[in-house]
Amino acid sequence: MTDPSAPSAPKPRLRIRIQFDDDLVLGPGKADLLELIRDTGSIAAAGRAMAMSYKRAWMLVEEMNAAFAEPLVDSSRGGAKGGGARVTPAGEAVLGHYRKLEEIMAEAGAARIGALQSMLRDMSKEK
Fold first, then answer.
1. Alpha-carbon distance 35 to 125, whole Å?
2. Which residue has the higher pLDDT, 4 or 30?
3. For 19, what's the count of Cα atoms within 13 Å in the CB-facing half-sphere?
């Protein structure tokens, strides 16, 4: 029986990157950025939440918007009415497909991930 007070081993995560061509890679960082823009309504706030500069966040948004047939993020400048950003329906679709693909791959690979994890050295006694 395992000790309930013992720290549990970290659960492995499967992270995917899809390289469409030399100009576009869609991976966990861009997916997280889209989610945070959706949740915060702001590219700047999403970047801050990811410890990323506004310039870097904006560059990634521009890269995604240029690569897809429809923009994934729509933004407006600040001012009297305030600025902001929103994930477009196309952005929601891209994000949904990406997250579903992560889920499918994690389920399909669970046995292999478990096999790999069982082969790891027990590092808990070495810390």
1. 38
2. 30
3. 3
Give pLDDT tens digits for 58-88: 999 999 999 999 999 999 876 555 679 999 9
Among the residue ranges 14-28, 66-80, 113-127, the one predicted with the least confidence is: 113-127
Domain count, the chain: 1
Residues near 61 by beta carbon (within 8 Å), at least 6 away in sequence: 33, 37, 43, 72, 73, 75, 85
Is the residue at 90 inside a domain? yes
Q: Classify burial at 77, counting beta carbons within 10 Å of its beta carbon; exposed 0-12, middle 13-18, buried 19 or more.
A: exposed
Distances in whole angstroms, Cα of residue 38 to Cα of each of 15, 33, 83, 91, 97? 21, 9, 14, 9, 16
CB 60 within 8 A of CB 43: no
Whether the CB-CB separation of 57 and 47 falls below 8 Å is answered with: yes
The CATH code of the domain that includes 87 is 1.10.10.10
Q: Which residues pair with 76 in a beta bridge?
A: 84
